Amino acid sequence: MLQRSMAVSIVVLGMSWAAGCTTLPWGNGGLGDEVPAEAIDPNGLVRVLGPSDLVAAAARLTNLIPVRWADGLTIEGLLSLDAGGASIDAMIDGVVIEPGPVQLALGSAGLAVSVGVTIAPAPLADRDATVVLCAPKLSADGALLAFDLGLVTDKLGRVQAVLVGEPRFEGAALSVDWSGCGDVVVATALDELTDELWGALADVTADAIAPDLLLAVPPALGLDLATGIAGTVAADAMGSGYARLSVAADEADGDAVWRSVGDVLVVPFGVGITADTHPCMPALVLPRIGVSPLPGSGSAEPGTALLSAAVVRQAITAGWLAGAACGSHATRGVEVPAEELAAMWPALGRLPAATPLSLQVWPREAPSVGLAIGGADRLVIGTGLVDIDLYAELDGAQVRLASMTIDADTVLGVRIGATGLVTLAPSEVTLRASGARAGLLAAPPLDAAEALLRPVVLALLDGRPLLSLPARPATTGSTRVRVTAEHIVVPM
């Protein structure tokens, strides 16, 4: 079986906080139908394939040959030939065809495929009804079985490879020896009969090889991306918040799923994201996602996957609304810097030593998300107004010490780890505005809000997954991901 060496999946940011996400089997509930059109960016994820990607995919398909056809293909049966005004049924008797290396190239239908083949000299018995008329010999060494593939989608948005046109044998090493046929085959029809024979044999061989290759082509190219995911982002006594994701390719106006941009193949996938708001959040609505532009000839970089800015914004906002950033969901495990706070806020020193402190976060607004703001390769998330409550456990009860309202910007990079996970990496947190209110203790100063802000941001965003790529060798470490105004560009 072909290994999924180029598979990519999107992780809705909110779902990384979920107690459990469910990948729904297609046809079981139709998750895609639950994502309305206004929540789908038809170009949300774009796979860009160039010549080197096709070479790599061809190598993966070639690796399938010894697994699937270790002993070659044995072809048997009748081939009906019609040439020179005469019809002949050629009986194929145990012809062994050995498939070899696969080659892929861009073609008018999408992909041009050729499979090297070797056929040891083998006799054919030509029959007229039940009478054997002659036994020509055929051979092919280093010839190619060539056919064209189109890329289309099924009703579930999965990319499918389909045969287009007629398969054919190519190469100078095709040989048929008709010498044993005497007068049965008219000499003037030999060339036509030979073409008919190889054409019929190409059909039979393609029928035997194509089904396995057709199934293997999309994953070999990294195009097996269609999926549906539903997950609980946050659940507590107040209620639950959910997010849903669909990824599906779509044929443009009934045409092929792929686009040709120069010498590269561009395959867009529609990405839809919706959220059911957690009760801890205000009654906010996800905005319409819009239609992102496809990369043009100058920006279609082969060997990459492009995640649109619109999808990144929608994923972060969906997680936010579904409860990832409210209550204690975003702050579990956060270590409150008590000593640092006490130095800025003397009132905190009134508490008994080692008093457990905790935080609860209550966003008032949806976040803002900008790509390449203030420089390339930067992702900037604005929190909007967020209330932060600081609690202490006193005599077994949670007591609110004070509250702060902040509005901050976080600058993040995007990185790929050795496991293939593309994650967020906060690098800078800037407090734009703040206010404070007293609780058990007097209101803290501005410095205290800044001290609390960074651990909250790290808990909320640091290491959160954005994409899942194939595992990378540990020796390669992390790989830089580019962030432009329109896309996050991930090397494949």
Structural description of this entry:
The protein is α+β, with helices and mostly antiparallel strands. Among the domains are: 53-220, Bactericidal permeability-increasing protein, domain 1 (Super Roll); 325-492, no CATH class. The chain has five helices and 25 strands. It has helices at residues 51-68, 190-221, 309-324, 338-344, 446-461; strands at residues 9-10, 20-23, 40-49, 73-83, 86-107, 110-128, 131-134, 137-153, 159-170, 174-177, 227-236, 239-249, 259-261, 264-276, 304-308, 357-363, 368-371, 379-382, 386-394, 397-416, 421-438, 465-468, 479-480, 482-483, 487-491. Strands 1, 16, 17, 18, 19, 20, 21, 22 and 23 form a nine-stranded antiparallel beta sheet that branches. Strands 2, 3, 11, 12, 13, 14, 15, 24 and 25 form a nine-stranded antiparallel beta sheet that branches. Strands 4, 5, 6, 7, 8, 9 and 10 form a seven-stranded antiparallel beta sheet that branches. Helix 1 (51-68) crosses helix 2 (190-221). The longest helix has 32 residues, at 190-221. It is rod-shaped. Residues 1-9, 12-33 and 472-478 have low confidence and may be disordered.
